[in-house]
Design goal:
The chain is mainly alpha-helical and 94 residues long. The chain is built from 3 helices and 2 strands. It is extended and about 50 Å long.
């Protein structure tokens, strides 16, 4: 994993629980995701709040939550950014 801003910072971890977070929301312009209710979102957050360490939850001077990306996630992000950049450039040339 590496830091998404400071890409020269890397880390190798061995004991962790990985969860799939990506969900396909739209496919071919059609909404294919069943949106959760506000109560379901709140319940999910409450059930998972204990997973965060206290230094990230404190109100005064909370620690910055470390976010590292896998190479596959980073590559996907950069691919999507480049696709949008090309579309915007093509649109602006019209």
């Amino acid at each position: 994993m590496f830091h998404p801003v400071h890409t020269f910072i890397g880390k190798f971890v061995t004991e962790f629980e990985a969860r799939e977070l990506h969900q396909t929301i739209f496919e071919n312009g059609e909404l294919i995701y069943d949106l959760p209710t506000l109560q379901e979102i709140r319940d999910f957050a409450q059930r998972n709040l204990h997973l965060l360490w206290d230094e990230y939850k404190r109100t005064l001077n909370p620690a910055e939550y470390p976010v590292n990306l896998s190479r596959a996630c980073w590559d996907n992000k950069m691919k999507r950014i480049e696709e949008i950049r090309r579309k915007v450039e093509a649109f602006m040339k019209r």
